Amino acid sequence: MTDYKSMFEQALRTLAAIDDALGIGDDGCGDPDQTLTAIEELKAIQKMEPPQLRKIHPLDFPIEVFLADLTTRPANIIRAELAGFASYAGTGTFDIEPPFTVRHLCMFSRSEMRKWPNFGRKCLNEVEETLRARGLQLWENHDERSLRLLREHKEYFK
After folding, report:
1. CATH number given to 58-152
2. At CB < 8 A and 24+ separation, what contacts does 112-116 make?
């Protein structure tokens, strides 16, 4: 009995939605053709598929999305270092264009990040754990290669 009752309630809700869409009052006096058209439109709306979302590679996420997963201290230090890194280098052009991604963070090595002011072992471990959770890691065996490549070949990291 509850199945019939729930089916009846659903039919009433559908009819009420059709009446609202057509602007018909409670008197039930509406054009039958208009009602059939409204039913077809409702069916078409239900058949519409949601838009397909494009998958983003973990390196291409905005840096702010990554920093939201960190505590305040490492997030603020990374923001400050990347902002300083993107400043004008006396040449009148940016070293990196300001919309930063996780790719820009991954080009630094452990030893380079340890040299940042107030960025200690705990901050570094937290950053590495967050990167590892996303399947990423910092650059190993660094030897100043990333900064040199970045300054000479700006398209390398895009």
Report:
1. 1.10.150.20
2. 112/142, 113/138, 116/77, 116/81
